[in-house]
Amino acid sequence: MSTPVHVAVLMGGWSSEREVSLITGAGVADALERVGYRVTRIDMDRDIAVRLADVKPDVVFNALHGTPGEDGTVQGMMDLMGLKYTHSGLATSVIAIDKQLTKSALVPHGIPMPGGMVVESAGLYSNDPLPRPYVLKPVNEGSSVGVAIVTDSSNYGNPIGRDVQGPWQQFDHLLAEPFIRGRELTVAVLGDRALCVTELQPKSGFYDFEAKYTEGKTEHICPAQIPDDVTEAMLGWALQAHRVLGCRGASRSDFRWDDTQGVDGVFLLEVNTQPGMTPLSLVPEQAKQVGISYEQLVDILVKEALA
Where is the domain boundary, 127, 148, 178? Predict the structure, then answer.
């Protein structure tokens, strides 16, 4: 009888997305055991290289979110150690975590993304970098961290008040983008296949960026009830982004769609190289929609990493 493949599931860490990563890691580890893998669960700390050297896995399932698990740091360490691991490699991770670098890579390939610029946070207290409404977000944090929509009626002040709570208090530089009115949609890519489009709809009231991340506020419509040409455009751009950036395993592209503009109203916001993998996350949900179970999904990711 052959020895089962040994997978170390790397989770937790110290990013702002630690708790989501722990849920992702637990779900992945349980599923891999059901498939028949030998699994070691590792909550990452500063001794992670020593831990991995002791454990000697055949492959690492990277279930980390945010820095340093998503920005190339952990990927570079595992490359140096000669370890195989799931999801994207060093260069891809460095580019994709940085929203401005992502634009520089994708826009020349014809993928529509919002305009905008990187601004110094201190300058926001004297004048707006763009006409209102506009969005401010950290350049290289996970999409759930520190997004502010600045409107004429927002309580940030005009100009933004120095003492008002917002991402300008935590980050020296921010990405300023025009606010795209309309609907929030997302596409998962697995291997070399765009799965489907999910719309994220508010259950009540006005939908802003943060409604997406508050449990119970957002309903997933999967597959999204949108025109076929818009669906095809999003699937195509998500797959193209995955390829251009050199993503491996699973990625998730988040879109904004102004539905008064047809296909011309579609804008890709960012590409996530370490998308959530809790059993209720968007990637497993889309995989299920196309006939891939959660167990099959994690098995596919491990097999691709081993290959």
Answer: 178
